[in-house]
Amino acid sequence: MAVIFAVVILEWTGIAPIAAPAAQQDYEAAEAKYTAALAACGNCPELAAILNNLGGLYYTTGRYAEAGVLYQRALGLREVQAGTMALALLPPLNNLALLYRETADYAHARQYAERAVSIVDLNQSAESADGAVSFANLGAILEVQGEIGEAKKWLERALAIRERVLGVSHVLVAETLSDLALAYRQEGKLKEAAEHYQRALAIYEASADAKKRNLPSVLNNLGQLLVQQGRLKEAETLFRRAIAESQRQFGPQHPNVAAALANLANVLGSHRKYSEAEELLHRAEEIDRCSFSAEHPRIAYDLSVEAALLFDRKQYARAETVLSDAMAILLKSFPATHPQIGKVTADLAEVYFRQNRMVEAESAFAKALAILEPAWGPENPLLVPTLQDYALLLRARQDYAKAASLDARVMKIRVTQTLRGNV
Fold first, then answer.
1. How many CB atoms sit inside 10 A of residue 283's CB?
2. Please, which contacts does 339-344 make with residues 24 or more away whose CB atoms are closer than 8 Å?
3. pLDDT digits (tens), the chain, 423 positions
4. Domains of the chain, CATH where assigned
5. Residue 242 and residue 223: Cα distance in Å, rounded?
6. 29 and 41 in contact (C-beta within 8 Å)?
7. Cβ-based neighbours of 325, under 8 Å, separated by 6 or more
8. Is residue 393 within 8 Å of 366, Cβ to Cβ?
9. What whole-number distance in Å separates Cα of residue 237 and Cα of residue 231?
10. How far apart are CA 298 and CA 288, in angstroms?
11. Under a CB-based contact definition with an 8 Å cutoff, are residues 174 and 214 in contact?
12. Half-sphere exposure of 225 (CA within 13 A, CB side)
């Protein structure tokens, strides 16, 4: 699962704002300044900006509920002061879109992002930096909802504007490159995804410490891509680096730390380092359960990693229970056709197969492919593990013709990927 962590929109005020703190202690100092400014402000003209900026600090440090309250107050003030379609509404609107995306309230995230885009269009600001923020937010929200084609349109538009207005080495260009890389990953275009991640990583590494808030996310997401390519040792290095960078910036209890811990646990499980993997995953689960609701997709991801560890240790009954719990969570956030649902369905099919529950396994494999093929495309390399395992089951059931057809599909995908340079 991709790490979601975007740059919040802070506004300049007369209070010497700290726009991009470099480490945890800097956030504490910034919070003290904004809290004092808020107390002294009363109904001063800068109140909405102070609320928005303090909310941004809370968001960045994982205090999402507090951030949401402040963003809503800032938005309400701006609506009264400037009207419901003014450009002044964009900072709190875009920040609310980010917040609701992070907390998996995708309906509200999309609502705020689409409203921001409407304001940009109405005010003829589509080619501005403000326009790019709104387009990038909408694209990222569509992406997590599985609407990859539409997401890419908005992200590519945002990237072109940011490169032209801000320059090709700006951190917001890197943020959009990273979001586009995720879209390419989900399309199975691993070469393009890697190129985008590497370019984003180079931008962050060349930036000052104070502008590296998204570096852990890029490290995590590039690591996940390397896992898909079977480059586990390189992925492990990136995940360990992401843990260290996240802890340096945000402290040990931040969701970005949890994401890297879970990703590293997954890799260590593949190396049969189960004790260390379980310890890391336990830490990740504790952080995520403190940071998010019990029905957040990040909890489902942690459960999926736990199930993989159980599966590798042949504890199939427990793995089934954990995957069923993950599925229940995902069904509350996504439609039944979402690829995350398809992936967990494929994992359940594996569990049924290993338990010799052939009818259930075949049904689950077929259901998983019925979800994943339309979402990813019929020649996506991400389908290969499911196609291979389904073929293995079919041969066990002596359905050799159908198994052979799946084998042929796997071979075609691999040849296509080789020709494209994706392997």
1. 18
2. 339/146, 339/186, 339/371, 339/372, 339/375, 339/376, 340/1, 340/146, 340/297, 340/300, 341/371, 342/368, 342/369, 342/371, 342/372, 342/375, 343/304, 343/368, 343/372, 344/300, 344/304
3. 444 445 567 765 444 444 444 555 677 788 888 889 898 998 898 899 999 999 998 998 889 999 999 999 999 999 999 999 999 999 999 999 999 999 999 999 999 999 999 999 999 999 998 899 999 999 999 999 989 999 999 999 999 999 999 999 998 999 999 999 999 998 888 889 999 999 999 999 888 755 577 889 899 999 999 998 889 999 999 999 999 999 988 889 999 999 999 999 999 999 999 999 999 999 999 999 999 999 999 999 999 999 999 999 999 999 999 999 999 999 999 999 999 999 999 999 999 999 999 999 999 999 999 999 999 999 899 999 999 999 999 999 999 999 999 999 999 998 887 777 665
4. 340-423 (1.25.40.10)
5. 9
6. no
7. 300, 303
8. no
9. 10
10. 7
11. yes
12. 28
Joined together, the tokens standing for residue 178 give 């990273």
SS (H, E, C) 317-341: HHHHHHHHHHHHHHHHHCCCCCHHH
CB of 150 within 8 A of CB of 113?
A: no
Residues 28 and 35: their CA atoms lie apart, in Å, by 10
Question: Using CB atoms within 10 A of its CB, is residue 346 exposed (0-12), middle (13-18) or buried (19+)?
Answer: buried
Q: How many helices (H) and strands (E) does the chain have?
A: 19, 0
Residue type, 311: F
* Residues in the chain, total: 423
Cα–Cα distance measured from residue 95 to residue 101, given in angstroms and rounded to the nearest whole number: 10
Residue carrying structure tokens 């309906």: 107
What distance lies between CA 366 and its chain's CA centroid? 27
Residue 296 backbone phi and psi in degrees, to 5: -80, 145
Hunting for tokens 């309230």 — which residue is that? 105
Q: In sequence order, which residues have a C-beta less than 8 Å from that of residue 110 and are 6 or more positions away?
A: 97, 138, 141, 142, 145
Distance from C-alpha of 320 to C-alpha of 299, rounded to nearest angstrom: 16
What the block records as the tokens of 398 is 């002596």
Write out the two tokens for 325.
């719990």
